[in-house]
Amino acid sequence: MSAIPQNVLVNQKATLDSLLAIQSTFFNGFEKLVDLNLKAAKAAFEGVAAKSQEAIELKDAQEALAFTSALVRPEQAVTYSKDVFDILSGVQGDLSKLAESQLNNSHQQAAEVIEQISRNAPTGSESAVALMKSSLATATSAYESVAKAARQATDAAESNINAATNATLKAAADAAQATKAPRAKRAAAN
């Protein structure tokens, strides 16, 4: 076999491997989302069953008011949203790694092609080959700068989301505590 068909076969195999890796990444993310949703649904059903039992045992309006106040639990929604974000962020990170790997392979292949061209180039074409090498180096440098900026933006967004989640959870806990304090005082007064 000649070198060109062999290179084509190698490139086709690499492309197929990349597509399978992407498919696997998406499927794993989907599987994690399904698992999260099943756990959330199970917890919701269990919560409804427990709260239904508690509702049956209510004796007066004050207990009913306390019961309805306890039904609101924003920390569950925030935690669920954070879990979804973590799964999607993981999928995005895996896809970024795959894309970066693919780009590095493409860069290496382009460098090999330019090197092959330079070996077979006619005399006097050194400036054209140098221009191609310089263009490849410039494109690589630009990509690395953009990739670095994208990673920094992703890290900053993730940090902001974590801070917002923690602040929301703290506010929800403080609100729950604040609603319990007046009830405890009323109960002690009775």
Structure, explained:
With 190 residues, the chain is mainly alpha-helical. The protein has one domain. Helix 1 runs antiparallel to helix 3. The N and C termini lie far apart (94 Å).
Question: How do you describe this structure in short?
Answer:
The protein has one domain (3-189). The protein is built from 4 helices and no strands. It has helices at 3-56, 61-71, 74-120, 126-189.
Topology (SSEs and partners):
Layout: H1 3-56, H2 61-71, H3 74-120, H4 126-189
Shape: elongated
The end-to-end distance, rounded to whole angstroms, is 94 Å
Beta-strand portion reads under 5%
Structural class: mainly alpha
Q: In total, how many domains does the architecture comprise? A: 1
Low-pLDDT sequence parts: none
The total beta strand count reads 0
Major sheet attributes: none
H/I helix tally: 4
Secondary-structure element pattern, one letter each: HHHH
